[in-house]
Design a protein that fits this description.
elongated, 8 strands, disordered N terminus, alpha+beta
Length: 290
């Protein structure tokens, strides 16, 4: 009498391993990282190891099988090396799901700890591309890293020289002055240190400037706090560095419905999303260049 053949646990694990290895090779080859492979011979060694592994009789005797959640759990319980296979298989099998857009977003979203810094860099890049698109030619003066000091770019326009700062706390020592905030807190047991506008474009001769504060968050209260910071930066700059200025607070697109501006004695302060910044920033820049 015949007996129905049951798929054993070992076959399930080996089938999942074969599927994972084959899918990993497919993903890598689809990516066409030829330049990377030439520079990193270790990658070629790892690919060769995978090629040899998938040709082994143990894997050739089982069918490649997309692992389900139960098999993934079994893989994790099978030892340290199998846990690595489980993590990789769990990631790769997400491609089989219906929502590839969500998967793509999850893969390219930055680490939460870096998101704010990347948003700051993105807004700075937007300022640069906006200037270049309107015919200006920003010239790099220094790399954008913590140890560097001074303006990051120089922008020439109609005989005027503007300096674009990435974190502008160094403006005060450059002018041989002390920031009013530092002076105001100097009598405290824990005095304050120089504060840095995230981005600042300043013309030292005409004494005019644009200030940008970046607020990457889904917290409405935190974003609104950008007003006090931008206003403080603008007020301090008007105290001894500039005669005219404009300030912007830039927040994520989903947190801003429309560009809005409040006029103050020291200059206008606007809230906007990145896509609204280009037009508003360049219009303000053109006005200050007159």
């Amino acid at each position: 009498m015949g007996r129905t053949r049951q798929r054993t646990s070992d076959e399930a694990l080996l089938g999942a391993l074969r599927w994972t290895v084959e899918r990993m090779l497919l993903v890598y080859r689809d990516a066409s990282f030829r330049d990377l492979r030439r520079k990193k011979p270790l990658v070629d060694e790892q690919l060769e190891a995978l090629d040899q592994l998938v040709k082994r009789p143990e894997l050739q005797q089982v069918a490649s099988a997309l692992p389900d959640s139960a098999v993934i759990k079994d893989l994790r319980r099978s030892g340290p090396n199998w846990r690595i296979v489980a993590d990789l298989a769990d990631l790769l099998r997400q491609e089989e799901g219906p929502d590839l857009i969500a998967l793509a977003k999850a893969q390219i979203m930055p680490d939460e700890d870096l998101a704010s810094a990347l948003f700051h860099l993105g807004v700075f890049g937007l300022v640069l591309t906006s200037l270049r698109a309107d015919g200006y030619r920003p010239v790099s003066l220094r790399p954008l890293h913590g140890g560097a000091s001074g303006a990051a770019y120089e922008v020439e326009f109609a005989g005027q020289t503007w300096y674009l700062w990435f974190e502008a706390g160094g403006l005060w020592p450059k002018y041989g002055q002390v920031e009013p905030y530092v002076e105001a807190t100097s009598g405290l047991l824990r005095p304050g240190q120089t504060k840095s506008p995230d981005i600042m474009l300043i013309n030292e001769e005409s004494r005019r400037a644009l200030i940008i504060e970046c607020k990457y968050s889904r917290d409405h209260k935190y974003i609104r706090s950008g007003y006090s910071q931008a206003l403080a930066y603008l007020t301090e700059a008007r105290t001894s560095m500039i005669d005219l200025g404009v300030a912007f607070v830039v927040a994520p697109s989903e947190m801003v419905s429309t560009l809005s501006t409040g006029d103050t004695l020291v200059g206008p302060v606007s809230f906007c999303a990145p896509e609204q910044l280009k037009g508003a920033f360049m219009a303000a820049f053109a006005e200050l260049c007159r």
